[in-house]
Every structure is written in structure tokens, then in C-alpha cells.
Amino acid sequence: MEQEAGFADHLSREGENLSLVVEYLYKHHSRTFDKIKGLLKDRVPGISHIEAKTTEEGRVLLKFQDGAFEDPFLACFTSDGTIKMLAYLILLYDPNPHLLLCIEEPENQLYPKLLWELAEEFRSYSNRGG
User: Can you list the alpha helix ranges (DSSP code H) found in 9-79?
Assistant: First the structure.
């Protein structure tokens, strides 16, 4: 996942600005980002770190660290399920939640055991007033 440097405090409809939102949360809402990162680490075995890195060319790259590898790798080498789970967690723990949050086919590309936890996250979101 690569994006021109810029600003994004909310995930876009298609999620193409995920790296910008990760960068924003890291810089401006570190406790929220730590919570999201912790939840993702619990659900995706091996993930130990997530970061948005701005290159000299002005692009923001989303990188993941897996404990089995020495160097972090780009989001394009990460499973679609991992990216989707990160995007869902960002939506569900947005510091400024949306009044209405609709997700189409959340089961696509996720392990079936994660669906129960995701459903509970959505229930919690609605109970918090989202």
C-alpha cells in the first residue's frame, strides 16, 4: 500500500489511503494506534510491528514486521485478509467515529474464526454510539 504524502484522518471509501491514516493515527492518536496494533497482533500471528514510512520521494509506504523475518515488508506483500482486518480496526476505533458504518461482505478474505471477533467489534462500536 503506497500513497503520495499528504493528510488523511479518516479511511476513504475504498481504503486506498490506509497508509496515510496509519501515519495520522501514529502521530496524533498514539494510544488508539497502539490499541489497533495490539488487536491486529492478537488476530494475525507473527505481526509484531506496523508503520507508515515516508520516503525521500514523498510517498508513504505501509510496512509490516513479522517476527520470522529480519526486515519489515511492504503491505503489497501482506495478505488481503491482514490488510482488511487492519482497515476494519481503523474504522472501528476511529477517534472521530462515523455516524453510520456499513461494510459489504466482511467475511471475504478473512479466516472464519475471526468473523466472530469482528462481529463483536461491530456490536461494541454500535454500543459506543457509532
Answer: 18-28, 30-43
